[in-house]
From TrEMBL:
Source organism: Streptomyces phaeoluteigriseus
Gene: pgk
Taxonomic lineage from the root: Bacteria, Bacillati, Actinomycetota, Actinomycetes, Kitasatosporales
Compartments where located: Cytoplasm
UniProt superkingdom: Bacteria
Full protein name: Phosphoglycerate kinase
Subunit structure: Monomer.
Amino acid sequence: IDELLTEGVAGKRIFVRADLNVPLDGGTITDDGRIRAVLPTVKALADAGARVVVASHLGRPKGAPDAAFSLAPAAARMGELLGTDVAFATDTVGDSARSTVAGLTDGQVAVIENLRFNAGETAKDDAERGAFADQLAELADVYVGDGFGAVHRKHASVFDLPARLPHAAGHLIATEVGVLKKLTEDVKRPYVVALGGSKVSDKLAVIDQLLGKADRLLIGGGMVFTFLKAKGYEVGASLLQEDQIPVVQEYIERARKNGVELVLPVDVVTSTEFPDLKTKAPGHPHTVAADAIPADQLGLDIGPETRKLYASKLADAATVFWNGPMGVFEHPDYAEGTKAVAQALLDSPAFTVVGGGDSAAAVRLLGFDENAFGHISTGGGASLEYLEGKTLPGLAALED
Ligand code: 3PG
C-alpha cells in the first residue's frame, strides 16, 4: 500500500476487501476489533484523497440477502471510529452500490452490503465466481486486500477480483504476515503453543505441523477430551470425537519420538449440564482429576492445578502462539482457564501471538488490555492455515 500511496490515489476508487465479520448480538456489535484493525488502511487512503469502497462478508448467509447478516451496523461503527460519515450501499453490485460509489467525493468512504448476499462470492465454480468478480471490478480502479481473516478463502472478492485490477496489500495484511513469519521462519525458542477450541478435527493439520516445529504443546478446550480418551481415560459426558482417537494416538506417539512436550490437563472443571450462556445462571461446577471424570459429568474448563501447570510451561517461553479458549469462557464459572493462559502470556517476556477470532474476543471480553499482547491476529482459520504452511488464495493473489 505504501507504493500505491506514493504513486498517488487522489480521485481513484479503491476497493478495500476487509474482514468486518464481527460478532453481533441482535444488531449490536459485541467486539469491534476487526473494524478497528482495518482503519489504518482506510484512513491512509481517505486522507490521501481516494474514494474508498470497503467490502466484506459477515457470517454465512446462503448467497441471498438476509437482514440478520447486514453490514449496516459495521458501517455505522466504522463511521463512529473514523469520526466521519460513512456511506452505506444496501446491495453489493446493484443500483445502490453503483450510485453510492458514483456519489463518493475524494476522501470519502462507503461500505457496500455483505458480499455473501451474492452466490457468486463463495461459488466453487470458477466462471460463476469470475462473473461476480467482473461486476465488483466495475466499482473500482484499484484493489487493496486487507481482510486477513478471509485470505484462506478462495472467494471472488479475495481471489478473483485482484486479478482484474491493479492490486496491493493493506497495512493489516502486511502486519499479520510479518508477525506470522516470525513463527514459521527462525522462531525463537522455547516455542510454546497453547491450543484450545472445541473440535480436534479443526486443529489436526496445525497440530501435525507443530509436532515438527514447537517445543511444547499445551492442549485445552473441548478437544482435551479426545486426547484424554486416546490415553485410555474415561471422559464421562464430555465432548468427544471418537473417530479422531487413532489420529490423536498417533500424535501422542509422534510428540514422544520428536521430543515435543505434549501437555494435557491434570484436572478439569465439570458439570452435569452445559451452562446457559444467555442468562449466565450459576452452573454447578466441580473440579475432578483428568483421569477420574464421572460418567454423568462433562468437562467445561481446565482445572486449577492445570492452570498452574500451564502457567509454568509458558513462563520460560521465548515465543508463544495461542489459539482457542481453554474452556467455556463465556460463562464465569468456566472462564478461569482462559483467563489463566491470557495472564500467563502477559506475565511472560515471550513474543506472544494470539490467533483466532474466539481467543482474541475472549481476551477483550475478559477485560484484558489487548495492547499488552505482542500481537492479536484478526485471523482464526487464516492464521492456522498460514502456520500449516498452506498457500492462502488471498495472499497468493496479491503477490504477483
Ligand atoms: C473468520 O471469522 O474466521 C473469517 O471472517 C472467515 O469467515 P468464514 O469462516 O465464514 O469464511
